[in-house]
Specification:
37% helix; 5-stranded parallel β-sheet; 10% strand; alpha/beta; SGNH/GDSL hydrolase family protein; 273 residues
Length: 273
């Protein structure tokens, strides 16, 4: 694995301003780290969102498009959402194609946030099992993700397309868990569900021939329900409900650092297998 500066840019490209476009859901918009942009309040885009922190880490980089929107599913890539144009339409209408396109998507397709809220209110899975969610992840989501990643690539064929996975937001072991509402069984179910989601996302990215960045360990030791959490606590009522289980500013920076590290490595790293 080789390493180069400026996100693997050529010497010529390094002398000009690079641009980044951020697509996806709340895990890219920066939900969990208010305040949010006032011009599009429904999408809850934070100044501390990791795509913006990522650009700030590279002085010659600017965010040309910040289309990520809280609550977005894969449908938001091709359909209007919260009064905004489809994210792919926004990407297509840029005057110049961005150098980098990042995306987090899929979590809302399986209703992960509702599962987490049900854990807090009563129990994680109403029937005691997570089969419904796992079936959706393994049987329906792979083709949907592959097709949408390919669509992003088709809209920006000369951009570096980077699919970003979801971080583990629950403690890696029960002895680190400080929340009485989270049982060991539920903690393991939620961790397993997120791992399965990331595996499907990674395979779909490979099928579409785009890059994948793993972020599952970026919050290790700082998950929700730990003593030094970088994740917003869960609440049942606004505004806490909306922030629930999303990385705070420190968590956003941790994700930005992980993505920056990946972008600084050779495109043909082992993550492309």
């Amino acid at each position: 694995m080789t390493v180069s500066s400026g996100w693997n840019a050529s010497a010529a490209a390094a002398s000009r301003q690079r641009t980044l476009a951020a697509l996806g859901d709340s895990y890219s918009s920066g939900e969990g780290s208010p305040p949010f942009d006032v011009l599009a309040p429904r999408c809850r885009r934070s100044s501390q969102a990791w795509p913006r922190r990522l650009a700030a880490m590279e002085p010659s980089t600017t965010v040309a498009l910040f289309a990520a929107c809280s609550g977005a599913t894969t449908d938001a890539l091709n359909e209007s959402f919260k009064g905004e144009q489809p994210q792919l339409t926004q990407l297509r209408r840029l005057r110049t194609a961005p150098d980098i396109v990042t995306i987090t998507i899929g979590g809302n397709d399986i209703g992960f946030s509702n599962v987490i809220l049900s854990c807090f209110a009563w129990k994680c899975f109403w029937d005691g099992k997570d089969k419904r969610e796992l079936d959706h992840i393994t049987k329906e989501l792979p083709d949907v993700l592959s097709a949408n990643y390919a669509a992003v690539k088709a809209v920006a064929p000369h951009s570096r397309i980077v699919v970003v996975g979801y971080p583990d937001i629950f403690p890696s072991s029960q002895h680190k868990n400080t929340c009485k509402w989270l049982s060991n069984t539920e903690r393991r179910q939620l961790t397993s569900l997120n791992s399965q989601l990331n595996r499907v996302i990674r395979r779909a990215a490979a099928d579409a021939d785009v890059e994948y960045v793993a972020t599952d360990r970026t919050l290790r030791g700082h998950e929700i329900c730990t003593k030094d959490s970088w994740v917003a606590p869960i609440g049942l009522f606004p505004p806490a409900r909306d922030l629930s289980a999303h990385p705070t500013a420190r968590g956003q920076q941790a994700i930005a650092t992980a993505v920056d590290r990946r972008l600084s490595t050779d495109r043909l790293s082992t993550d492309r297998r």
